[in-house]
Amino acid sequence: MKVEPELRELYQEMIVDHGRRPRNFGRIEPASCRAEGFNPLCGDRVTVYLRCKDGRVRDASFEGQGCAISVASASMMTEAVKGKSREEVERMFDAFHRLLTEENATPAPELGKLKVFAGVREFPSRVKCAVLAWHTLKAALSGTEETVSTE
Amino acid sequence: MTPLVSSPEQYRKADFDVYRVREDFPILHREVYGKPLIYLDNAATTQKPRAVIEAIRRYYEETNANIHRGLHFLSERATEQYEAVRRKIQEFLGASESCEVVFTRGTTESINLVASSLGRLLLQPGDEVVLTTMEHHSNIVPWQLICSATGAKIRVVPINDCGELCLEDFERLLNPRTKIVALTHVSNALGTVNPVHQVVQMAKTVNATVVVDGAQAVSHLPVDVRQLGCDFYAFSGHKLFGPTGIGVLWGRAELLEAMPPYQGGGEMIRTVTFEESTWAKIPHKFEAGTPPIAEVIGLGAAVDYVLQVGYAAIGEHEAALLERATRALATIPGLRIIGNAREKAAVVSFVLEGVHPHDIGTILDRDGIAIRAGHHCAQPLMQRFGVAATARASFAFYNTFSEVDALAAGVEKVIEVFS
Asked: N or C: which end of chain B has fewer CB within 10 A?
């Protein structure tokens, strides 16, 4: 059966793998900050836990359920932000956002392997799935207790 | 009154040819991503036959005017056409009077109208409104709003693992405080056809008023409100091959007359002074403001079209589609069908082990196959089955066996992507 190239691009091996066996899944006790994210359109939920010290993310994890894109995004995000300063995380957030929404965006070097999410751009209805964890992370860092919604 | 289904024009199944019927739907001939559209999201909205599109175009080109107001030619013609559709809906539902047919924006507005207005008429603190686990949010939230305003409580009828109502539990819930029972005729997420007639008979032992959400029923089966015995019946035009923005609330005249208005404005009054106003007779009491006239005309054309195809032919073809889809999907390893009621409309909700429904939806979409993936606005029902979401293929009479086969092949592709 022929699988279209844009589908292969979206569901790359790495995304399927992280979607199926997410890394850093579970909670950090005690966490220095946490936030919940919710996509009311599809019911996807994610909780992001962070342990920060001296302005750096020392540990990151998440819990929740969702599609392959949202789980893989959360999993790879928690890997990517460990050890990064707040400013570095914010730069990654912006770069990730641009990668998914801007046409012909070239992946910024700080994204590293997160560039596998570039394929999501071809699927506008799935962009929210990929950014949910990132918005939740941002809320956790800013200390917002309120549930972040994609709507 | 003879039920609609026995009228001769509805028995046309000998003539039914799905490929000929498809010719009536322009959109079914388009492609998406370079592939023929396979539209299996009919529970979300149905496609429109040319007759409906033309009726709306003709109305705007030839008749457009406001109704019930002008003394001029066009206004009189528009009023005539609008009211003729009301009589058509009366007949379509087997109702005894056309004044029992209220036009609304859709099922959601119909239910909000009943909940708010009937609720204010009937509900006292401690009274009970009975719903079922399989309700759409639009048959839950309006009742929560009126219950919190009146001090009434919501009770819920559970369902079994097949997705059928537990009638013994329903019987146990009924008591003299049960004032309203609101349930769906056909479940949007499971396809279950509820035994409305039986539910009504049980509800009437405690004199409860029964409100039926018919949004998912009208495209699949003939409805006769007098046979069902219910007190209110709501549906949407756009799920009956008609336009969006138009719905119907049928209600018993004596209840509609006793109920307070839902919205105020022009059209719904008899006299207005700054001290007080008096209300127009039903149904106009519930139709404040200029209604969606073109949409009503379009709905009339949709009803004509459906009756011409005939519910007997629709029922037979859809049963065959459902059987084929169920058989094809059930053999796929890791696939579980959610909802296996004995009485079921042509809806197949399913989950696939290790794959989220959204990913199924995205992959099928690239094959031109439109399905719905999500909670189907029925979160309590999803919780009942322990899933966050399902993928749902919902059929209409214009779907073909080869489209069913393409769906099954598409699901095999999903498995390949994730293997």
From this structure: C
Q: How far is B130 from chain A (nearest CA, A)?
A: 26
pLDDT tens profile A27-48: 998 899 999 999 877 778 899 9
Residue spans per domain, chain B: 8-48+310-418, 53-307
CB pair distance less than 8 Å for B354 and A7: no
Distances (CA, A) of B50 to B54, B58, B243, B302, B315: 6, 12, 12, 10, 22
- Looking at CATH, the fold of the domain delimited by B8-48+310-418 is given as Aspartate Aminotransferase, domain 1 (3.90.1150)
Q: What is the pLDDT of residues A76-124, one digit of tens each?
A: 999 999 999 999 999 999 999 999 999 887 888 889 999 999 999 999 9
Are B56 and B298 in contact, with CB atoms under 8 Å apart?
Answer: yes
Rounded to two decimals, the pTM is 0.93
* Cα(A29)–Cα(A26) distance, integer angstroms: 10
The answer to whether the CB atoms of B363 and A7 lie below 8 A apart is yes
Name the class of domain A5-143. alpha beta
Q: What is the ipTM of this complex?
A: 0.89
**Cβ-proximal residues to B210 (8 Å cutoff; 6+ apart), any chain:** B180, B181, B182, B183, B196, B199, B200, B203, B204, B229, B230, B231, B232
Say yes or no for a CB contact (<8 Å) between B354 and A129: no
Q: Does B35 touch chain A (CB under 8 A)?
A: no
Model confidence over B117-168: pLDDT tens digits? 999 999 999 999 999 999 999 999 999 999 999 999 999 999 999 999 999 9
Q: What pLDDT shows up at residue B70?
A: 75
**What is residue B289's three-state secondary structure?**
coil
Domain ranges for chain A:
5-143
Interface-testing mutation among A17, A18, A42, A132, with chain B (most B C-beta atoms within 10 A): A42
Fold of the B53-307 domain: Aspartate Aminotransferase; domain 2 (3.40.640)
B380 has a chain A CB within 8 A of its CB: no
